[in-house]
């Protein structure tokens, strides 16, 4: 049964999960090659303090959420008052526009947090690959890999470096960590 589960994972679910991760990355970049390349340039910077950015996004999202709840509660209260007074309820265009704007801002914050999460995981994956292969390559090769990583400009640059280092890890029969974009 374990063999069947493993085969099912390798041939059906793993490709689906990886495809979903690619689609999620595509969605966070709104299909833009420029935004995608910018994301990989962020990866090239390695790990810097992104936690403060995430905390800021969460606080901003929390603030937007509180406003949405307040607006929704007020609309319900106004509608209830109008029903109690038997006055026809007129939709308020300003309130509707404010709610739409808050929903758009919330959506942008969500996509940005997904994007930041992907960048952090991808940068960590590169660092882990470097740490795994480091004892088996020369100091010059380590410096060259770091230099190439610092020069990443696109997804193809990122994939070329990952594939090269992964190949070196595989050739030495070392443990190759997986990079799951959905984690």
Q: How much strand content do the residues show?
A: under 5%
Give Rg in angstroms: 24 Å
Query: Outline, from the CA principal axes?
Result: elongated
Largest sheet: none
Oligomer: single chain
Number of strands: 0
Number of helices in the DSSP assignment = 6
What's the order of the H and E elements? Answer: HHHHHH
* Distance separating the two termini: 26 Å
**Residue runs with pLDDT of under 50 for 5 or more positions:** none
Q: If you average the pLDDT, what whole number results?
A: 76
Class by alpha and beta content? mainly alpha
- The residue fraction in helices comes out at over 70%
Q: Mind explaining what this structure looks like?
A:
With 183 residues, the protein is mainly alpha-helical. The protein has helices spanning 2-28, 33-44, 51-84, 93-133, 139-150, 155-171. 9% of the residues are buried.
């Amino acid at each position: 049964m374990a063999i069947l589960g493993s085969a099912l994972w390798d041939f059906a679910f793993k490709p689906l999960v990886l495809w979903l991760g690619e689609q999620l990355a595509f969605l966070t970049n709104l299909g833009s090659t420029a935004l995608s390349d910018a994301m990989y340039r962020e990866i090239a910077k390695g790990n810097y303090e992104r936690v403060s950015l995430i905390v800021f996004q969460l606080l901003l999202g929390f603030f937007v959420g509180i406003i949405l709840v307040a607006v929704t509660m007020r609309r319900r209260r106004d509608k209830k008052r109008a029903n109690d007074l038997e006055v026809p309820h007129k939709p308020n265009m300003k309130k509707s526009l404010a709610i739409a704007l808050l929903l758009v801002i919330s959506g942008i914050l969500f996509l940005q947090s997904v994007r930041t999460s992907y960048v952090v995981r991808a940068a960590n994956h590169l660092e882990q690959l470097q740490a795994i292969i480091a004892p088996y390559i020369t100091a010059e090769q380590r410096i060259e890999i770091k230099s190439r990583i610092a020069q990443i400009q696109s997804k193809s640059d990122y994939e070329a470096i990952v594939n090269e280092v992964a190949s070196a890890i595989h050739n030495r029969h070392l443990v190759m960590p997986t990079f799951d974009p959905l984690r």
